[in-house]
Design a protein that fits this description.
Belongs to the chalcone isomerase family. This protein is of the alpha+beta class. It has one domain (32-254): Chalcone isomerase (3-Layer(bba) Sandwich). It is built from 7 helices and 12 strands. The strands form 3 sheets. It has a 7-stranded antiparallel β-sheet. Strands 1-2-3 form a 3-stranded antiparallel β-sheet, with no helix packed on it. Helix 4 packs antiparallel against helix 5.
């Protein structure tokens, strides 16, 4: 039976406009102090010693990742999935998990004590996470075969409305971003890592055979980087379950 190929679409609604070789090791040793300071307890996820399982797709995410080029190890904050509706039937396209530098919490003291529901609708908090000069990485794991051009077209449809007037720098960044996916089949199980090193620099790593060993491209445009971040963590996220899980993870660690 042939592999199923899925078209992808991304939400284009937004209320925001805003004007890295990458090999990874799946786990790293943490001392007890670090493990206590940052916990992963998203209520919708299945836990194990090393992994958190996204329940809707059964995709397992490492709780910790080490990325060369980042200033420190990254911890999983929440997971979710992206669903496309075909003739009123929901089809899951990918699972996603957000990893952050553990010290991000020290930059968010103003939100301590907030509930997950309050955090989820607070755009200023998610904007602060983006602006914090700390590494953040979104891991996407495809659960269906997707044509690379189709994936990019859907992503571009979501990014473009979030940018008022692209500058030459933005257009160059978008061209670089587009070239990664053109003529590239994205098979089920493919990993895509979008890693924000700072607000104006983002690394893209893609691997169809486990964790990637190199960077496919570096995107240097704050407008493009923020637009992509807003696709997932803005007021109209393409994966509400991911944003909700991240909010739960933040609320747990704010206690």
């Amino acid at each position: 039976m042939g592999a199923e190929v899925c078209e992808v679409s991304w939400s284009t609604k937004t209320k925001h406009t805003h004007s890295s070789s990458c090999s990874l090791s799946p786990t790293f040793p943490l001392n007890k102090r670090t493990q206590i300071r940052f916990t992963v307890k998203a209520s919708s996820s299945v836990e194990s010693a090393e992994y958190t399982e996204e329940p809707a797709t059964s995709v397992k995410f490492h709780k910790f990742l080490s990325l060369p080029g980042c200033s420190s190890h990254l911890s999983l904050l929440g997971t979710g999935y992206r669903e496309k509706v075909f003739a009123i039937i929901g089809v899951k396209v990918y699972a996603a998990g957000l990893y952050v530098n553990q010290t991000i919490l020290s930059k968010l003291n103003a939100w301590k004590g907030r509930s997950a529901s309050e955090i989820q609708v607070d755009s200023s908090l998610f904007d602060s996470i983006f602006q914090a000069p700390l590494d953040k990485s979104l891991q996407i794991v495809l659960v269906r075969d997707v044509d690379g051009k189709t994936f990019w077209d859907a992503l571009d449809d979501a990014i473009s409305p979030r940018m008022k007037t692209p500058t030459p720098i933005d257009q160059s960044a978008l061209s670089t971003f587009r070239s990664i996916f053109q003529e590239r089949p994205l098979k089920k199980g493919t990993f895509i890592f979008l890693t924000w090193l700072d607000p104006s620099k983002m690394q893209v790593c893609i691997s169809s055979n486990g964790l990637p060993s190199e960077v496919d491209a570096t995107i240097e445009s704050e407008n493009v980087s923020f637009a992509l971040y807003d696709v997932f963590f803005g007021d109209a996220p393409v994966s509400p379950s991911l944003k909700a899980s991240v909010a739960t993870g933040l609320a747990t660690n704010f206690k």
